[in-house]
Amino acid sequence: MQNSQALFERSLQVAPGGVHSPVRAFRSVGGTPVFFARAQGPYLYSVEGDRYIDFCQSFGPNILGHRDPDVEHVLKQTIELGWCFGACEPYSLELAELVKAELPWVERLRFVCSGTEAVMSALRVARAATGRPSILKFEGCYHGHADSLLVKAGSGLAGPSASDSAGVPEFLAAQTLTCPLDDEAALEHVFKNHGSQIAAVIIEPMPANYGLLLQRPEYLQRVAEMARANGSLLILDEVISGFRVAFGGMVERTGIRPDLVTYGKVMGGGLAVGAYAGRADLMDLVAPAGKVYQAGTLSANPLAMRTGWATLNKLKTFRVHSVLEERMQDFAAELKKVLQPAGLTVTHFSSVFWIHPQTGKPLRSLTDLPAGMGDRYKSFFHALLKRGVYMAPSGYEVGFLSLAHETPVLDEALGKIREAVRDIG
Ligand SMILES: Cc1ncc(COP(=O)(O)O)c(C=O)c1O
Asked: What domains are defined for the chain?
């Protein structure tokens, strides 16, 4: 097979920027993206045959690691049955029932193919239910690439050189109000001026797309209260945190109950799944039960439904979240010591972590972020890459532990991180 450089040159001829999702292009870290030929457990293997410990884990879905044997078994069984029916089947029902049985706030749910679609559809329901036009989102939160949400967003739009997307009409962007995170006064101000127009407040309850900006529980509570008091719906975007920080995501961790909730990533176990869910009276507005139209040729694809089911079933049966929680505590304690000489540290929650410069205080909003963060990450990223550790190719993306990141793997990674820290000194 050709090497990564040659493959990327070919890709540039067929795809914008050579990629099918922006962060993959290495623009914020520089250099040529590594092309991976295969993956196994905690590892990715490049087309050159090099092994990398993978802390990106496909940006979150692979909570069990790559090619978990139980998920793979179910996937292979399902392939034998066919993989695209465009009709009713029992597999989506089984996954939906598993979710509903565990999460009481999921009274109804609709499967789609991505987090973006889930969020876009939830907003449509909120607008239909309230008859109001506006949405309130928080600066630095990313909710996928639906037009209304590409305003002060994170992920590929994070960092000083990025801006909001071109191609979003001003009249539409004007319906998206924004507010800084961690700022009750700003929140009250927006509601005072626009409360009667706000259909929904949407927030990542664990903001993880502009670094990991862990919120104070009382702030999240205040967001929920303000939404309720103003007749706006609360949408918790759990595309990253759902089934990741607990089976019940941040709803379970905080006790804050949403009107609508969006899922993706872990829910599909690595295949294309998203879902929006919540109160039955709201979800029953969706076609064909109601007048909010939303449909999908590939929705509830049997392969994705079965890998999702196998993943969630394993999470539950093997109490995977407590294993990961404990592993992360130990890993983060060591990582902090290893990073210290470079002036870096780690913020973590459950199996999600973010390496960033030390500032001496918790980072909760964009204004807390130190200047020059991205530049520092570039050299660190490449020092790790050359030693076989693959982090997300942007300093604003978080890292993930999976069940496959067992202690010897993490010890090996710590050794390599220690060497990388020496390099960047
Ligand atoms: C919180 C959140 N919402 C929505 C999305 C969009 O999901 P997708 O990339 O599957 O469209 C993401 C993706 O990273 C996300 O992190």
From this structure: 4-55+319-424 (3.90.1150.10), 69-317 (3.40.640.10)
Give 347's strand partners.
354
Give yes or no: 142 in active site: yes
Q: How many CB atoms lie within 10 A of CB 155?
A: 24
Q: How far apart are CA 240 and CA 354, in angstroms?
A: 14
Q: Distance between CA 108 and CA 93 in Å, rounded?
A: 11
Rounded Cα distance between 396 and 329, Å, is 21
How does pLDDT run across 60-114, given as a tens digit for each residue? 999 999 999 999 999 999 999 999 999 999 999 999 999 999 999 999 999 999 9
Which candidate in 237, 259, 276, 390 is catalytic?
A: 237
Any atom of ligand 1 within 6 Å of the Cβ of 267: no
The catalytic position among 43, 142, 276, 396 is 142
Question: What is the spatial distance between Cα 265 and Cα 115, in angstroms, rounded to a whole number?
Answer: 7
Q: Is 142 in the pocket of ligand 1 (CB under 6 A)?
A: yes
